[in-house]
Amino acid sequence: MARTILAGWQAGGIITLQSGSPFNITQSGDSQNVEFSTWSRPHLLPVTAELSNPDPAAWFNITAFSRSVGVYGTSPRNPLVGPGLSTFDLSVSKAFPMPFDKSHELLFRTEFFNAFNSPQFANPGGVLGTGTFGRVTGTRADNRQIQFALKYTF
Asked: How many domains would you assign to the chain?
């Protein structure tokens, strides 16, 4: 009885490790008078924009950017990199043969997506002059999800 329950389990998993994606810094309003305010870049000051220990409340040094007025800003395209992604998806399954016919079996399977339930942060706000500038306000992957399945084959 114990061998029927404990033996024959199969496990699998997928590990996803990705670096963060670069993102652009723009500024709100049309202080450059170019009518394309969504693409107006601020000035990048000669200080380090990246923080040594970023967290969702302050992902980068917001004082490294200043509003450009009447001229094009000096901030390059995609000057910063957002949070990376690291998820662990796991699965466990076992096939139980049916006692009345050996060609029939019942397969039990469970899957854990983002098994360790670690938050996968989205890129921080990149628009100078808004309340979310430099802050992470969302996630880019779901929290832990668990699903169970039974499959009868004959």
From this structure: 1
Q: DSSP states of 79-130 as a string?
A: -EE---EEEEEEEEEEEEEETTEEEEEEEEEEEEETTT----B-PPB-EETS
Question: Would you say 45 and 74 are in contact if contact means Cβ atoms under 8 Å apart?
Answer: no
| C-alpha–C-alpha distance, residues 7 and 51, integer Å | 50
Range of the structural domain that residue 69 is part of: 2-153
Pairing mode of beta strands 26-27, 127-128 = parallel
CA gap 41, 28 in Å, rounded: 9
Report the DSSP beta bridge partners of residue 17: 86
Q: How far does CA 6 lie from the centroid of its chain?
A: 36
Q: Is the dihedral of CA 149, 88, 117, 62 positive or negative?
A: negative
What pLDDT digit, counting tens, does each position of 104-122 carry? 999 999 999 999 999 999 9
Alpha carbon separation from 5 to 27, 80, 97, 110, 150 (Å, rounded): 62, 52, 11, 16, 16
Residue pLDDT, tens place only, 9-49: 999 999 999 999 999 999 988 777 776 666 788 999 999 99
For residue 72, the model assigns a pLDDT of 86
